[in-house]
Structures
1.
Amino acid sequence: MKIGIDIGGSHIGIGLIDEKGIIVDKEEKYIVNDSQNNSQKEIKKDNLKKELEDFLIKKINQYKEKNKIENIGMAIPGTVNKTTIIRAVNLGLENYNIAEKIEEKTNIKVHLRNDAKCSALAELKYGNLKGYENGLFLCIGTGIGGAIVYNGKVLESKNVPGYEFSHMIIQKNGIQCNCGKRGCFEAYSSIKRLKEHIANEFGLNNLDNQFIKEFIIKNQNDIRLKYFISQYIENLAIGISNLINIFEPEVIVFGGGFVDYSDILIEPLKKQILTTNLLFNKRNDIILKLAKLGNDAGIIGASLNDKTPIFNE
Ligand SMILES: [Zn+2]
């Protein structure tokens, strides 16, 4: 058995996974993550670390009692090396050796990998990237995670994960991103941005995906709302077309909260990419799919052995 852990901007998931990649048990927990905008930033960060460690150690030790655990992997939304969260801007965490903390209390080796790369590995092995030589995976939620499959492998750079599509600049001197730069793709095109924008403009105080989606459907003829959505689609299309121009993927697979809005967003997005002057090599069609493993892709991908082939291995 393996354990996969997925740490997101607002929740943690941990699962026990069998040799076929099937989750046989899973537990999820919402985390309080307001470490970004708080005057007591350090205290909040320490609280978040303690909350993560306590939950994970307890759960791992429970799994360990009844199963032989070969491997624990963690999917992290940010820059990592094998043991340390170097920088996760949407969690407000930096230089945090979480693997060591968990190994100390569980005696099982833990390895870390960027979350989008984990999800892409899982989709490549079991999901909707399977069978494609070249594909793009985009996890659009609190931020935007990305991964490229090239010649059947998920690419990673040597010292840091790389392929940080979310922080390519699509607008000079644009809006502030959590990473410290301005005008990043993520700052315009995350689902969080879409929801916050709509909630602020229409005075909504519920940011639940289902609630916002219903609001959009109910008010689909509202001119202001139409304008926000079209702006969102335009920005998303700019970012994605940049990636198509660089990598020419055969398929693009979407994960994250975006999936909840796919029936509203995916056709306009496709149209925007194909019919406006964004693509260098013109195409008649582009295959856009939703992640087959849904929110489980992170957990399953994290559990895949450290030796799972990646670039140049
Ligand atoms: Zn950024």
2.
Amino acid sequence: MFKNILLTGNRLPRIRNALQLVIPLFIKYRLRILVGFMALLTVDLLQLMIPRVIKSAIDSLQFATASPASLLQHGMLVVGFALAIACCRFGWRYLILGFSRMLERDLRNRMLAKLVRLDRPFFNRRSTGEIMALSSNDLAAVQMACGIGLVSCVDAIMMTTAALFFMAYIHPQLTMIALAPMPILALLTGLLTKLLHRRFSRVQEQFSRMTEFARSTLSAIRLIKAYTQEGPQTGYFAKMGREYVKNNLRLAVVQGALFPFSTLIANASLLLVIYFGGRLTIAGTISIGDFVAFMTYLFLMTWPMMAIGWVTTLFQRGLTSLDRINQVLMEEPVVQEPLAPLPMPLTNRRISVRNLIFSHVAQQHEPILDGINLEIPPGFLGIVGKTGSGKTTLCQLLARIYPVAGNQLFWEDIDVNRLSLAEVRARIAYVPQDTLLFSDTIGANIGFGNPDADQAEIEQAASLAAIHDEIIGFEKGYQARVGERGLLLSGGQRQRITLARALLMDRPVIIIDDGLSAVDTDTEHRIISNFKEWLPGRTCIMASHRVAPIMAADQIVVMEGGRITDRGSHHDLLDSNRFYKTIYNHQMSTGGAGN
Ligand SMILES: Nc1ncnc2c1ncn2[C@@H]1O[C@H](COP(=O)(O)OP(=O)(O)O)[C@@H](O)[C@H]1O
Ligand SMILES: [Mg+2]
């Protein structure tokens, strides 16, 4: 699922692309970063001064020039430095780590802005769990790299260079000896880091799988209860959890090895310094103060040496995550706005479908829609057909959710591809097959598409959808909350609320995809007769696998296997179409439920 960009080919352009995402943010917050790094620099300089003070104190003892007052002075100086270090440390943490949080926020905002713009084909490809992992784990990795990672890197470089300089100033040869084990350290941490990175990716993938599983389990909780699948689901999740722990432990082995090995090598350095530096001190080549200062510098260098591996990992993780985020940010909606849209036709809303062919996958043998021809004047069009016959797909194409090839769908004889996508969509109220309600009040759910609507308009739409009476029957009426920790609504109630939401938008074209499938026959009758009054001048397209909701349509088309096999009024079809007659009779005899 996730490709590790650092292990795959043509990585440079991708890395460059990914970096281009954060560079503008570094520029935007440059002042904060600059002051932050100045504070960091001050911390490092002061830290490097401390060994000098210690050296001078020890030397004054060795050469018997020390007095209680001068020793106190040295001590006070160290305390003063420590105080200044504490202040500056607070400063850089506040500024740089704050910057990394701002960067995270900006990226997150951009991601959400992109996600809401992307269309159905993208969400068909990417699972919600994967997207959620992007905005939690991956964003966190980028934030870490740009915050603590960057600080540690700069800090390590400055400390190492400065400590090296001071050590070489004391004794160049001793410095060379002390550094002898360092290449081994670098090599070892390099190797371990690579391993660490690979195992970390595996942990990340597993986490994303688990998130997706938990999400889909929770959203299908009713199904799981109905099919008494709690046991198997829990078992499967537990198995994923065990896998996750196993992967994490494999990661921990490497993480655990990194630190002790680095310390071991650092201690080897210390051993060399004690032995060779001690001999130099005995011989009087360097003073005791120099010897102690040298060891303090070596000690100051140990942390940066150990940090190399960790910082490299942070950067690699950050870069991989940044690339993943960038892949999403580079996505574009499949259905695009034309560059120079033609003006929208104004009055008559004749929609024409001409020899429409559609497949989700290019070059599919059997297209999902195959040669659809349809004239849709204002009025009521019914689309009836068995499940899988292509009704939903046709509705989605009419609603401009999936792309349509040129010369197949027209508004007023203008190819829709040449009209502004936003304007076409703004003329259509689309009620998708799966009802979707937000966990908000019923009123807010109905008003969603039309935030300016007042209570009277909301109630009017609810009355049209034959749900008003039931809503005022609830304890809190329109203020009752739906969904999580709220009201449990029946399938039919949910469908009618989504219908009211679409009606409230008051758009010239309304497309209802199987929107009455869970509504009882009487209520269905009421809605259809309400519709008749509301309809004049508008276009209503209703798809249904049952005959009852579309019986009253001006024109009915019968779909089978992605084609329109017949058309006419209810009575025409009842006379002439055997398929239509069969489902009609069947549904009437089973009380209209017909599933
Ligand atoms: N996103 C998709 N990718 C691939 N095939 C799909 C997709 N959505 C629907 N189909 C297929 O298209 C066919 C028609 O489905 P649909 O339009 O939902 O029919 P209906 O609404 O009449 O039940 C079915 O065979 C279905 O499997
Ligand atoms: Mg359908």
3.
Amino acid sequence: MTLELESPPPDVRRAPSLHDRMLANFRLARESYVRHHRSRHWDLFPPDYEARLGDESLWPDFRRNGLTRGFGTSRGAPDTPDDTLDSRAAGKLVAAFDGLVGITGFEFVRDYHEARIGRPVALEHRGLLLDRNDLRLVHDTWEIVRHLGLPADAAPTFVEIGGGHGGLVAKLKRRWPRARCIILDLPEVNAVQTHYLSTAFPGARLLLYSEFLAGGAKALSGEFDFAILPGWTADQLRDESADLVMNTRSMQEMNRETIGFYFDRIHRFLRPGGLFYCVNRYTKSTVGEPIRIKDFPFDDRWHIQVSRPSFDQPWIHELIAVRSTMPVVPAPASTLAALPPYRLADVGTGLATAIRRLFAIIFGDHPNINPGIPGTLRNARVALERGLVAWVRGRPGLRAGLKKLLRR
Ligand SMILES: C[S@@+](CC[C@H](N)C(=O)[O-])C[C@H]1O[C@@H](n2cnc3c(N)ncnc32)[C@H](O)[C@@H]1O
């Protein structure tokens, strides 16, 4: 089961039953929409979205005709744009490609890129067809592969929250063909993911919302390649059942209530030693309140392994956190607190730290760590004493003379 990178996308009209299943599941999930899941940012689907999902003529071009607006193409992208990128966009894409190749090597990009299904506006370069959003997902794949360290024949369980068209889980599935991938997203986007993943992996076993409702938590313990479900089903994931949770560029567009909802579940269903790959903006306010990665409600049982600005988008932060069974020192909260944006209170914290360090240097704290001036003088006196004693011991004549002197 592999992505056909070099061949044209299969004709999507070949599977009317899957198309009907996708639509039926979209309607079902929409009926039970849990309100807080759709933030103001995501209140963007046009009234005719269902009709558009049902129009099979739109699917061959779905990554350029507005169906993926906001999750793959930008919110302001026009419908059916030209085939070619303007020279500025092409230059940025080539720069991003060069940067990525510098990190992963050419072969990794060649093996994992994908810009054919749904025909995003892409650029031919060095024999590859490149899409900017896809290159970011290639980078995410690289980081996950490196940090997860699982053999290719492992059968892990992956959970992605807010997966866009499904590009990242598709790449991970190529790497680990036996993986069970659970995508949690909005019903509108679940429909697109169903189309993309079944096109990329013809014959894949899909678990959709209707089967989930029929089977409940048991369905999630069964055999499937992709479970494509609305986010509120996260309640049904078994404790410590996931090896990896991903959230890239999406909690930044959710309400705080929704972020809290997901963190409660992640804390429960990610197994000890499992990874959380979390890539989100330092700050974004499109939901009507500031959402900052530094405020994400990580509890104290995380080792933060990686914390740095994201590849290609320095206004976004990349975190890789490993789940622990015990509270971790330094606490994740202290790593997060140090991230921008800064507050005036941070200046106070910085000043207090600077003053504490200055006092430790001058007056000392622990004698082995920061002896301070008193500790340095004490250490110098002890060293002097020891040096003198050793010097005298090395001179027997002097020792005898001293002994005589002292006896008088
Ligand atoms: C900007 S896209 C990012 C897509 C992809 N992760 C990427 O990095 O390209 C944000 C994603 O978050 C999803 N999303 C928004 N609200 C959500 C919610 N309440 N639960 C799960 N996913 C949600 C959107 O549907 C979309 O798939």
4.
Amino acid sequence: MAIELLLKGGTVVTEGGVVQADVGIDREKIVALTAPGETIPAKRVVDIGGLHLLPGLIDMHSHHREPGYTHKEDLITATACCAAGGVTVTVGMPNVSPSPTTAEILRDMFALYDQKAIVDYNVNPAGTVLEEIPRMAAMGILAYKVFMVVDTGRSYPHMPGIGVHDHGKLLAIFQEVQKTGLPIMIHPHDQALMDQIEQGYWAEGKRDFRAYAQAYAAHDGVIWDVAVGVLLRLQQAADVRLHLLHLQTVGCVEMLRAAKAQGRPVSAEVNPWALWLGNDWSNIERLGSYALSYYVAPHHSEAIWKALLDGTADIIATDHAPHLKEEKEPGWTDGWKAHTGTPSAQRYLSLLLTDVSAGRISLERAVEIVSLQPAKLFGLYPRKGAIRVGADADLVAVDLDREHVITNEEVLSKCGWTPYAGRKVRGVPVHTLVRGQFVFENGSVVGRPGYGRLASPVNAKSHERK
Ligand SMILES: [Zn+2]
């Protein structure tokens, strides 16, 4: 009996190391990993000689903008970026409208993804309504998300209903989430500190993008450090699985390292902007609000790199956050008027592979932080996250030697720009497969909207969506 597809001649990054192997695929799964020369009958054979085959990327943090903000991005453009970027599972965030704070709203969101997603998906709903927390767990989610941001001055990006700063309420949420066994992701923030700091800048007439960047990073990252200190202490009180978003200071890295040394169930993500964009002030001078996300001073960025290499930081997730140019332009004179965030899903693999090429990180560790560890932390392993027999055939074939200059024209996101334009990368995705089907082939998105499927934890009690 011939299998459906054989990927022949590639170099395969497996959990056990990098090997020459052919990969056999049948009915969505990897069914064979065979040494070169061994023949295995297949209906279709694709030669990937010269390419490296990696497990598809799992992006746990992406702002897809639908429903509610489809002028910025929609699920088709967002998941087209994913296909082109080697991302085979993308997980949306709750700052959409209506925000998924209840099982009903989440069900409607899943229905939208079901119609439109090109790659597999899930959504991290807001865990802000206590009685909805167990109901949403039963729907096959991977994690909850809460913003500590309660900035009442802006309706976007942190709208009411999904932000909680009150420590008592956070503790109650943690205790409820703990019963589900799922992790809770938190965007660390302290609005009282931010208010105090920004008033100081404004009193001096400083409101531009520089002031905004510096205010968030003031006092060597006090806003982030205070918030993470609170979160880690509440984590200990509730014994909940805590996943910290936006790791970006030396202080946060040290607190995380200490908590891990105590064996506590804590983890953290690093975002592309902390590694390749906001860590260089000249990018902020050149691009203004288009480079913000956040400013990460070089000594902080160094600490984050170290944390990624030594395992203190667990994963890279994109924080992909497209906005229109009209929403960024006001930042030149008023940084507080620009929407915060940068698009990155389409090219973060290339940015990471460029560092692999430069010897900064090994290919094996790079694959761990973008594929294997997200799968393990969020319950998708061993069905996803690794190239092994029996796993879903979620794969990305990359040319590690191909150089490419990133352009705004290639951007598939609806926003139509990237802060990485003009940058030369080394290492580009050539093909992406989701459950054995090409969604990106020879540099073109060929996936069909609606092909993507809900990626639920392997041990979920119920994958049902009523
Ligand atoms: Zn985000």
